Amino acid sequence: MTKTIFITGASTGIGRATAKLFAAKGWKVIATMRKPENETELHALNNVTVLPLDVTNTRQIHEITQQALALGDIDVVFNNAGYGLFGALEAMTDEQLVQQMETNFFGVVRVTQAFLPYFRERKAGLFITTGL
Fold first, then answer.
1. Domain segments of the chain as ranges
2. 25 CB burial (10 A radius; 0-12, 13-18, 19+)
3. pLDDT one-digit tens code per residue, 99-116
4. How far apart (Å, rounded) are the C-alpha atoms in residues 45 and 29?
5. Quick one: pLDDT at residue 132?
6. Nearest 5°: phi and psi at 5?
7. Rg of the Cα trace of the chain?
8. Neighbours of 18 (CB within 10 A)
């Protein structure tokens, strides 16, 4: 039975590498990113579905979760979307700090919340969260 992984932040870095690795191992991959229209490499892989997802958009999280679940069972959710905010703390604006928390913390929490009822019902499922 083929397993499926749902990945946030799959446009670059660890997310993209994870999508390619799992696809190469025969898994079905649901690779999400803010701008899937810019993606070319993952679209070319047969067992990868690329979907739009901005983890700061609560409505979109719920819509894409339902769309992903309609494709079949999901075994793993890889919370990878995030970014580093670098520089002197006193130079960072409140807006920059809030946006980073919305992405790196609340995005993880909201995606996890969206999949928890499904994993509970199945009595199976794994969350993996990267740290920044």
1. 4-129
2. exposed
3. 999 999 999 999 999 999
4. 10
5. 55
6. -120, 135
7. 15
8. 21
What is the DSSP annotation of the chain?
Answer: ---EEEESS-SSHHHHHHHHHHHHTT-EEEEEES-GGG--TGGGSTTEEEEE--TT-HHHHHHHHHHHHHTS---EEEE-------S-GGGS-HHHHHHHHIIIIIHHHHHHHHHHHHHHHHT--EEEE---
Asked if 64 contacts 32 with a C-beta cutoff of 8 angstroms, the reply is: yes
The token duo for 121 is 């019902």
CATH fold of 4-129: Rossmann fold (3.40.50)
Interatomic CA distance for residues 118 and 69, integer angstroms: 9
Q: Which of 36, 29, 15 is nearest to 76 (CA)?
A: 29
Which two three-digit tokens encode residue 97?
């700090």
**Tokens at residue 130, please?**
């990267």
pLDDT value of position 1: 80
71-92: pLDDT as tens digits: 999 999 999 999 999 999 999 9
